[in-house]
Description:
By secondary structure, this protein is mostly beta strands. The chain has a single domain (6-96), classed as Thrombin, subunit H (Beta Barrel). 13% of the residues lie in helices and 49% in strands. A six-stranded antiparallel barrel has the order 1-2-3-6-5-4. The protein is globular. 16% of the residues are buried.
Amino acid sequence: MPYYLNVFNRITDKPMGHIGNVSLDGLMLISELPMLVGARFEMCLKIPGPGGLRVINFSATCQWCREDVTPGGWDSGFSLVAPPAEYVEMVDALRQYFTFQTLATPV
């Protein structure tokens, strides 16, 4: 995911980090710098695909921040403020992609 789900500051278009975990309620960002807890960030995902780059804009509030086990990295938890439909679709697609499904056994 670090190569595909990069998060950018929507205002400055500068990279903030990449997604470490995602849910309908929020996400965990892995970054090189700590994030300010309690601050609201305007974020943007740029997802590559066959039809070009798909952009998802959203707002999120940092709930917590701690140093990652990897030196020089930081993990931050964000809650989303009214996630857009495109974000919900992305979470559903990732959930389906990473879900193990049992195959029906032939009779």
